[in-house]
Design a protein that fits this description.
The complex is a heterodimer of chains A (900) and B (191). Chain A has 900 residues and is mainly alpha-helical. Chain A is built from 35 helices and nine strands. The chains are: A mainly alpha (900), B mainly alpha (191).
């Protein structure tokens, strides 16, 4: 590149930045005229600009540098907004803090002003501040320093105005006043109460540490900086390769393992930091001794090693007091896995209380079972080594069999030896097969074993692969290989499903390999029926995986190919019922994928084709239950398609046709949980469609029928968690419907029963976000009913609890299912406040307060709906909800207007 | 150099440089470089071991030492910071290269204590790569490379850079935005 070209590049680059992002491509193309390479250079520069994140944004070494100190001192005596900076009272990683007074002397007010240093992304900080100011400014808790305001200085530095607190950091306070252990614990519990208060409002502190907790002269602890860390947090920059000067707002000594890894922060991270605070208050020391401060070392030490027990960190005379309960409480808060800590700050605080009152505490030392599982997890290498012992057996055999393979070709080899060689070859094959299928299945349920399972399947596969390479002409072996790849794909895809950190690309790669092998086999013997069926099966796997993970368009392409192959096979062999059954399955999958994609018309068309196929199967074998079950499912799907396209009566009628078939199946095999669930599903759909059609009483009747079935299922198998969550869902829906008909008391009863089932499932501390959302919505329902019935305190408690749970559940903006539930939780809690605002006997100020809360929550829900709409993931059945939220928002605003 | 006794040498050199004497710059850089190394060593003996040394603090302290309060010319301070930025870049890049050599086991001289004091958590190879990319940029547009050097290695504010380079703050800002994207894209391309 020459300097002139750089100048041209620069000029277009800057002009393009002034153009709206969506018009940039067009603009650049016009400006670059015919110069394609210039266009590309501008394009990659713009991309670099967009993705560079914090790349070299802050000087290579600058925090708390003297330059800032000097600048900070220069500001003393100056005015910022309405405030005059009187003196500097501190400085830290984020900037300096000043003691300030109202400059206009209208009020004799004092405050602490936190000035953010240069290098932080001012605009983003302020944007986030504006988004959250209502929530943060609304904090009213005796142990939280209030955030009053925020803006930028004339020089463009962001600043926050906070309540001024005069006091000592909590650890120094304890030392200075020589507090005993119980007094320290009581102080700590006040801190917990403040954090809990914030969690109930979905605000996480993220930077709890002793220097952020000041204790005033009268002994009141005050938490500083609530919400600030979140405001300063850099937005996630996808795939930024440069880790240079990556800045996260946190204090390494207090940061949880997940924070150090840069993972989403939840309320559990605050629980962890509180554990560190408690550790310090009890021992005067940090739980880990970090030798250096490199991110790698911190992550390794905090993420992989166990902290010393508090009692082991201090001298023997004082250790006695900590041994047992307090050790266990602190270590439970400090657990690596967020879900194994106290589920809430409140529960941590409760356990401390129990200890103070000499009641048994909930915290226990890690159980042996847990430690064993942890060993497997932490020492993947050791466990894999054990697995590899098995594999090395295979390996030895492989070497022997290769020789045997070669030997096979030599005519001079005795017949007996040849037989032995073949036996060997088959042994290897069986062993590899056993590793992939049996050994894998044996450890399937061992938690934390997923990585090992993937490794097992992969290693077993490698042997099969090498065998297949040796005998590429053996189609049976090739088929086995393809099946093994399918299995590997299943394992990888499952990783994706359970932890969302998984290997989607890996699953698709494995399925693709299986497909390629099968296509090659088919190419070698065109027309082979088995190979064609296998290829079609591969299309189904790939299509299903792609659709299930959000790539519906590509998934549908494969599913259509699968349908095409199956249609042809069925045409060639009209009497082969297996082939016809596969065709039905292929139609069914394609129909579901089209539905997911929002193409309801296309889905209906495909489901109708499935109907013809499945009806013919039942006609051919009326006694075959599998065929009848398939037919019922297709009838249900057609009903759903009609209802989703707005034809509720058609939906009810279509769905109803599945009823006699499923009821007969259940009558024939009364213990079959699957058939009972099928019947229950028909009733559930019936209820849903009736509700959509406005027939609330009819809907309620259907759910009552479903309830009977759900209760039967659970009675027969109390350990069945699917049945239990079905039951809680039904109770929740009955609550919804009863609430709509104004039967608040009865609705409340049903919500309570739903909650009881949720509790039995341990849903509140579940890792599964949908279980958690289920609880939140149920609690929201309970709260709304209580509000309508005038039980104000109880309603507020439920609202708080729902918000607290929400704060502890990380959002996943890319997922429609996750986002829609989040938005609904906001709406539910908003409805509680709206109902409270309308309850009798409230003074105007309290009424206003409730309307404001409701308004803010509706705004939050609308933000999610809007985002979903932008991403194109708002589905038809949710389409009305944003409008509901908007209407309710208007109602809040109008009521607020009226009350002024 | 010492005919103006009582005025620190660095001030005279900086004055000479601002009047257009290019050779003065080399002399200042050497002075600053030595002083920075000396200070780093000093810090290592005094500070608590867990205290990470901040280069900006060093640079400012070096300025006080070399120019002292005797220098009434505020512009000299900016010029000094510019020189220090260059020296800082040199120290850090040399250090990074030495670390990389050592990792490759080519028998480079062992790390000196005071240099390791300047160690920042950045992966060393990234500093070397950035340095190389910066050289490429300098060949195309020297001023842009300097803006980056002053910002990233010197920790200067945009206002200070505007003064050092005698350009407007708006130009500094534009240069910075463009250079940052250019360097980022360059580093990513060579990955």
């Amino acid at each position: 590149m020459d300097p002139n070209r750089l100048r041209a590049l620069e000029s277009i680059f800057h002009d393009a930045l002034d153009v709206e992002p969506q018009n940039r491509d067009e603009f650049v193309r016009a400006r670059c005229a015919d110069d394609e390479s210039l266009r590309q250079d501008v394009g990659s520069l713009l991309a670099a600009h967009a993705t560079a994140g914090e790349f070299i944004d802050s000087p290579i070494a600058q925090p708390d540098g003297q330059a800032f100190e000097e600048e900070a001192d220069r500001l003393i005596g100056q005015r910022i907004g309405h405030w005059e900076l009187v003196k500097r009272i501190g400085s830290g990683g984020m900037g300096a803090v000043y003691f300030a007074r109202r400059a206009d002397r209208q009020f004799d007010q004092q405050a602490a002003i936190k000035l953010i240093k240069r290098g932080m992304d001012t605009e983003a900080v302020l944007r986030r501040f504006r988004n959250e100011r209502q929530i943060l400014a609304g904090f009213d808790h005796p142990n939280i320093a209030r955030l009053l305001d925020g803006d930028t200085t004339d020089d463009g530095l962001p600043y926050f105005v906070m309540e001024y607190v005069e006091g000592l950091p909590i650890d120094q306070y304890c030392e200075r006043h020589a507090l005993d252990v119980t007094q320290r614990l009581q102080l700590f519990r006040q801190v917990c109460a403040a954090v809990s208060y914030a969690h109930r409002r979905a605000v996480i502190h993220r930077d709890l540490k002793t220097s952020n907790i000041l204790v005033t002269a009268d002994g009141t602890p005050k938490l500083l900086d609530f919400g600030i860390a979140r405001l300063l947090e850099a937005p996630d920059v996808p795939a930024a390769p440069a880790t240079m000067l990556e800045q996260r707002v946190m204090t390494p000594d207090y940061a949880s393992p997940e924070q150090l890894r840069g993972e989403p922060v939840t309320t559990a991270s605050d629980v962890y930091s509180l554990g560190v605070v408690l550790y310090r208050l009890l021992t005067g020391q940090p739980p880990y001794r970090l030798k250096t401060r490199t991110p790698e070392e911190m992550e390794r030490t905090v993420g992989k090693t166990e902290p010393r027990r508090p009692s082991a960190a201090i001298d023997a005379t004082n250790a006695k007091r900590l041994r047992g309960d307090l050790d266990n409480i602190v270590l439970m808060a400090l657990r690596k896995e967020p879900e194994r800590r106290y589920p809430t700050v409140e529960q941590l605080s409760e356990d401390v209380r129990r200890h103070i009152e000499s009641l048994p505490v909930l915290a226990r030392r890690d159980t042996l079972a847990y430690r064993t599982a942890k060993f497997v997890r932490r020492n993947t290498a050791a466990t894999i080594a054990a697995a590899l012992v098995v594999l090395s057996l295979v390996g030895g055999l492989v070497a022997a069999s290769w020789q045997a393979q070669r030997a096979r070709a030599q005519e001079s080899i005795a017949v007996a030896e040849k037989a032995r060689a073949e036996r060997r070859f088959n042994e290897v094959r069986q062993l590899a097969h056993a590793v992939i299928f049996d050994y894998h299945d044996a450890i399937r349920d061992l938690s934390g074993a997923t990585a090992i399972r993937a490794r097992l399947v992969k290693d077993g596969l490698a042997y099969l692969d090498s065998l297949a390479g040796e005998s590429s002409g053996d189609p049976i072996l090739q088929r086995e290989l393809a099946a093994a790849y399918d299995r590997l794909g299943d394992v990888r895809g499952e990783i994706y499903g359970s932890a969302s950190t998984g290997d989607l690309a890996g699953a698709i790669e494995s399925y693709s390999k299986a497909l390629r092998i099968r296509e090659a086999l088919l190419a070698a013997s065109p027309g082979d029926v088995q190979d064609r069926r296998d290829v079609a099966a591969s299309y189904r796997k790939l299509g299903g995986q792609l659709t299930g993970t959000g790539y519906a368009a590509r998934g549908i392409t494969y599913l259509r190919k699968g349908v095409a192959v199956q249609e042809q096979l069925a045409a060639e062999q009209p009497d082969n019922l297996d082939i016809r059954m596969e065709l039905g399955a292929a139609y069914n999958l394609l129909g579901l994928a089209l539905e997911d994609f929002g193409n309801i018309g296309g889905a209906l068309e495909v489901h109708r084709k499935a109907l013809a196929v499945r009806e013919s199967l039942v006609a051919a074998e009326p006694a075959n239950r599998k065929f009848r079950r398939g037919l019922a499912i297709t009838l249900i799907s057609i009903g759903r398609g009609l209802a989703m396209s707005g034809d509720f009566q058609g939906g009810i009628a279509g769905n109803h046709q599945a009823l006699p078939i499923s009821e007969t199946l259940l009558a024939e095999d009364a213990d079959n949980a699957d058939y009972r669930r099928l019947v229950a599903n028909v009733y559930q759909n019936d209820g849903d469609y009736r509700e959509m059609a406005g027939d609330i009483d009819g809907a309620l009747q259907s759910f009552r029928k479903k309830l009977v079935l759900d209760e039967q299922s659970l009675a027969k198998d109390p350990a069945n968690s699917v049945a239990r969550s079905d039951l809680s869902y039904t109770r929740g829906r009955m609550g919804d419907l009863l609430a709509q008909s104004g039967k608040y008391g009865e609705a409340l009863l049903n919500y309570r029963k739903a909650l009881a089932e949720h509790e039995k499932l341990g849903a509140e501390s579940s890792k599964n976000p949908y279980q958690r959302y289920g609880v939140m919505l149920t609690r929201g329902g309970i709260g709304e009913m209580q509000a309508k019935l005038g039980e104000r305190a109880a309603a507020l408690a439920e609202a708080s609890r729902a918000m607290e749970l929400l704060a502890g559940t990380p959002p996943d903006p890319a997922s429609a299912a996750n986002s829609t539930r989040r938005a609904q939780v906001y709406m539910r809690v908003a409805a509680i406040h709206a109902a409270l605002a309308e309850s009798r006997g409230l003074d105007t100020a309290t009424q206003r307060e409730h309307w404001r809360s409701a308004r803010d929550l509706y705004v939050q829900s609308i933000a999610i709906w809007d985002d979903m709409q932008k991403r194109g993931i708002l589905t038809a059945d949710d389409a009305a909800k944003p409008r509901d939220a908007a209407r309710e928002l208007e109602r809040c605003k109008a009521s607020l207007q009226r009350l002024i | 150099m010492s005919e103006l006794s009582g005025i620190p040498e660095v001030t005279q050199l900086l004055d000479a440089w601002s009047r257009g004497d290019r050779s003065a710059l080399d002399k200042v850089t050497r002075l600053v470089y030595d002083e920075l190394r000396r200070l780093a060593h000093h810090y290592m003996q005094q500070q608590r071991p867990d205290h990470t040394l901040q280069t900006t603090a060093l640079v400012h302290e070096a300025y006080l030492k070399l120019a002292g309060h005797a220098d009434p010319n505020y512009a000299n301070r900016s010029h000094f910071l510019a020189v220090a930025a260059k020296a800082m870049r040199q120290i850090l890049v040399d250090h990074a290269k030495a670390t990389l050599r050592e990792k490759r086991g080519s028998g480079a001289k062992p790390l000196e204590l005071e240099e390791s004091a300047l160690l920042s958590p950045e992966p060393t190879h990234e500093i070397v790569e950035l340095d190389e990319a910066l050289e490429k940029l300098a060949a195309l547009d020297a001023r842009k490379a300097q803006v980056v050097e002053l910002t990233y290695f010197g920790g200067l504010t945009q206002e200070e850079i505007a003064e050092v380079l005698d350009i407007s703050v708006v130009t500094v800002r534009r240069d910075w935005t463009f250079s940052r994207a250019w360097l980022y894209s360059e580093l990513r391309r060579t990955d």
